[in-house]
Amino acid sequence: MKGIKATIFFFLIMGIGHSMMMVINRIDEKYGFDQNFIIWSAITLSVFGVILIFITRYNKTGTWQSMNGALGGILIWIGAVEYGLIFGSRILEIPPLNGTAPEYRLMEFTWPFVLVIFIYLLYHEDVRCNFILYLRRKLPLMKGPISEGRIRNYGPRTAFQIVLVMWTFYVLLLLAYDKNIFGVHHPVTYLIFVLSLGCGIYLIYKLLNIKEMGRAIRYAIPTAIIFWNAVEILAKWKIFTEPWITLNVPIMTSIFVAFIITFYLIYKDRKKT
Questions:
Q1: How far is it, in rounded angstroms, from Cα 53 to Cα 87?
Q2: Is residue 193 part of a domain?
Q3: Residue 43 near residue 79 (C-beta atoms within 8 A)
Q4: Is residue 96 part of a domain?
Q5: Angle value at C-alpha 135, between 129 and 138, nearest 5 degrees
Q6: CA 7 from chain center: how many Å?
Q7: DSSP result, 7-28
Q8: CA angle 138, 141, 145 (to 5 degrees)
Q9: Which residues constitute the domain of residue 10?
């Protein structure tokens, strides 16, 4: 059950993160503040993210190192990356196109950076990502075995993991939605949906066998994000309206309460073990 709790936790965080951005954006649009409110919001989120990652230095268990690292990574992603792209798109005066916001049009063309980082990680002896290890087993990439030294702090690794995984799948979906490449209703987009749903279910099955909460948290991050791809695609196909975008109060309140309950269950489980 540890893996299920962790997956639900991060799946709920995805919706809450979207809602938090919408609240900040709407306050800025309504009251103006000459964009200072949104700028200070982005700075505050980024600073809190850095503080959470710094705190992991003092966490004694892999569970809290992973939890604080993941939450810190999410705050940095929203504050520095997403809002950074919003500010960049405004300065460059990039207009929305076919329902794609300016900042996401800008993000789409960050794929070369994702590729460079992925190639680096593919050959890095100290990386223990299951997907990368799978590629190493199938392809003659390594000159020797991977590093097996002890990891003393999972916090920064987890923060980097959640940022890179979200970035990668954002770019993947944006490339798929682009009419000049595939399109929202292209077979490739349907394939991404099927693979996201299928792989997400498989990863949950794998999570059922994980007994250590810290590892479950780190494994749940890609699981929740891969599942989220299917949610994003369904919304793009207009199958449903995203409550975290429209800020549907009853639904978002329920999601927030569920988030608190899940966090408490994880805390209780950690305290018991």
A1: 25
A2: yes
A3: yes
A4: yes
A5: 140
A6: 12
A7: HHHHHHHHHHHHHHHHHHHHHH
A8: 90
A9: 2-109+151-272
Q: Is 68 buried (19+), middle (13-18) or exposed (0-12) by CB count in 10 A?
A: buried
pLDDT tens, position by position, 32-46: 655 678 888 899 999
Name residue 162's amino acid: I
Is 15 part of a structural domain of the chain? yes
Query: What six digits make up the tokens of 68?
Result: 């604080």
The full DSSP string for the chain is -HHHHHHHHHHHHHHHHHHHHHHHHHHHHHH-GGGHHHHHHHHHHHHHHHHHHHHTTT--SHHHHHHHHHHHHHHHIIIIIIHHHHHHHHHTTPPPBTTB-HHHHHHHTTHHHHHHHHHHHHH-TT---HHHHHHHHHS---SSPPP-PPPS--HHHHHHHHHHHHHHHHHHHHHHH-TTTS-TTSHHHHHHHHHHHHHHHHHHHHHTT---HHHHHHHHHHHHHHHHHHHHHHHHTTSS--HHHHT-HHHHHHHHHHHHHHHHHHHHHHHH-
Give the tokens for residue 113.
């950076």
Structural domain includes residue 215: yes
| Cα gap 91→99, rounded to integer Å | 20
Give the percent of the chain with pLDDT over 90.
37
Burial 39-56 (b: 16+ CB within 10 A, else e): eebbeebbeebbebbebb
Q: What is the pTM of this model?
A: 0.86
Question: Each residue of 101-141: pLDDT tens digit?
Answer: 899 999 999 999 999 999 998 888 788 788 888 888 888 77
Q: Are 168 and 221 in contact (CB under 8 A)?
A: no
Q: Mean pLDDT of all residues in the chain? A: 85
Count up the domains in the chain and report the number: 1
For residue 183, give Cα distances in angstroms to 33, 112, 190, 240. Answer: 37, 20, 10, 19
Task: Let me know: does 56 contact 14? Beta carbons within 8 Å.
Answer: no
